[in-house]
Amino acid sequence: MNFESELKKGNFIIAECMHCQKIIWPPSEFCNQCFNEVSWRKGSHEGKIIEFSKQNNDYFCLVEIENTIKIMGKLSAGVPNTGQYVKIEKCGIKDENYYFEMSVI
Amino acid sequence: MPKVGIASYGITKFSKDDSKIESVLLKSTKNLFDNSPNLSRNDIDAVLISTNNNSKYLSAILSEMSGIEPKIAHSIESLCNSGTNAIVSAYSYIASGLADVVLVSGAERYDSPGQILEWDNSRGEFKHPIFWASIFTKAYKREFSITDEELAIVPVKNHKQAQNNPNALSEKTYSLEDVINSKKLTDDLRLLDCSRPCTGGASILLASENTCKKFTDVPIWITGIGQKTTSAGFTKNMSFSSMESTHVAASTAFEMSKRNVKDIDVAEVHDAFSVCEPMALESLGFTDKGKGMTMIKELYTTNNLKINPRGGLIGSGHPLGATGIAQTIEITQQLQSCANKRQIENAKIGLIHNMSAAATSSTVLVLER
Question: Which residues are paired to A104 by β-bridges?
Fold first, then answer.
């Protein structure tokens, strides 16, 4: 499995080191602590808003997933608040950039 | 450790000129030679280039164009703190004895590729620096109950101070209303909150203790160096309202120089965006957490130029690879008492804070007369 080829298909997967019991983010083939090869699994699509702002009519949020992974994404539905839970509705790669579209739960 | 000093410098005006990177490098190097009548090309052991420009082999090119045949020649890139990284490398070459005299030349064009860190995919589609700056600003305002109007003092102060800097990009002053009414980039950031990419060059000559005196009667010594890189990705920051890498780098620099923040008479801090100035002052230890704007307001109302006398990045413009070197030149001029209208009276000890990519990396230098 490969993070980007899965993301291209709209799947959000997570790299985990079984040896260190640790999520590796940003995704990598090897653990940044022990350099063992990582295992891949489906990632949670739920996260918590750490911070947010707004450009024109679009909110963009810094979201924490599984208490470890922090990503920036667009909020496609709802009004954000810090601590608010959101769900990844859509993700993928567009113009060589990752994108995450989220909605308030 | 042997002493390493600043023996000379040269700089260009910061502008929106469409100049070739090689030409920008050459201009500030020529200015450095103009300022150093006792410097001969044979004195220079190493030529280090600081830039984010993707051109190849720039150190050899600048050397050839300047008639220098150095032993050591290479480029150094670390996004926005490339300049002070190159100075630290020059320091290390001299302190180790591998070189006696090092020319460091930094340059950037207004369209520098260094503004976007493509690698950082955790930022999703929000890779432009205005997005991390918006998150920092929102987090800072939230945590310390600071308003946009209060933060607007930073660009008002720094554009005003830049009017006494003949090399600054900014050519006018702005009111608080001008800042608030400037183009809204996001809910938390306006155009005048931003330092602007520009074309500019800055060069500095470092030398060992004895050799320094050959080139200047007033050498300025680098007595403290601190550097810290906490990550490459913006979202890996543990705090979005303070700068961890800056805090660590400052502690290291103060420890090396056996000085503390109270000893600092003048400082250039990395105000890439308005919010960065109070955050940097707090993380460097100039004031308590959340009190940066109180300090800045006090400086502004008393016309005290202690912080960013040349106008910082917001007033001077931000040619990435040249910025850290230009900051260091400003503090050198201050300590040599030749900063003209920007002069802080009796400045003896100064500090430079130069950072990269949403404060994931910081360099802090302490300079002394």
Answer: A86
Question: A51 with A33, same domain?
Answer: no
- Give strand pairing partners of B254: none
How far is B114 from chain A, CA to nearest CA, in Å? Answer: 17
Q: Which CATH class is domain B4-114+197-215?
A: alpha beta
**β-bridge pairing A69-77 and A97-104:** parallel
CB A19 within 8 A of CB A36: yes
Instruction: Return the closest-CA partner of residue A36 out of A63, A53, A17.
Output: A17
The total domain count for chain A is 2
Assess whether A95 and A51 both reside in one domain: yes
Task: Give yes or no: residues A11 and A60 share one domain.
Answer: no
Q: What is the pLDDT along chain B (369 residues), one digit of tens a residue?
A: 889 999 999 999 999 999 999 999 999 999 999 999 999 999 999 999 999 999 999 999 999 999 999 999 999 999 999 999 999 999 999 999 999 999 999 999 999 999 999 999 999 999 999 999 999 999 999 999 999 999 999 999 999 999 999 999 999 999 999 999 999 999 999 999 999 999 999 999 999 999 999 999 999 999 999 999 999 999 999 999 999 999 999 999 999 999 999 999 999 999 999 999 999 999 999 999 999 999 999 999 999 999 999 999 999 999 999 999 999 999 999 999 999 999 999 999 999 999 999 999 999 999 999
- Each domain of chain B, given as residue ranges in start order, spans 4-114+197-215
- Tell whether A58 is within 8 A of chain B (Cβ): no
Kindly state whether residues A12 and A54 are assigned to the same domain. no
B97 lies within 8 A of chain A by CB: no
Q: Which residue segment(s) compose the domain that A89 sits in?
A: 46-104
Are B187 and A82 inside 8 Å of each other by CB?
A: no
How many other CB atoms are found less than 10 A from the CB of residue B49? 29
Q: Is the ipTM of this complex over 0.90?
A: yes
Interface test with B, best of A13, A55, A59, A63 (most B CBs within 10 A): A55
- The reply to whether A54 and A25 lie within a common domain is no
**What does B74-111 look like in DSSP terms, one character per residue?**
EEE-BTBTHHHHHHHHHHHHHHHTS-SEEEEEEEE-TT
Residue A91 one-letter amino acid: C
Cβ <8 Å between B123 and A72: yes
Instruction: Note whether A95 and A58 are same-domain residues.
Output: yes
Looking at the fold, whether A24 and A64 belong to one and the same domain comes out as no
What is the enclosing helix (H) or strand (E) of B347? none
Residues of A with Cβ-Cβ distance to B120 under 8 angstroms: 26
| From B124, B134, B135, residue closest to A97, measured CB to CB | B124
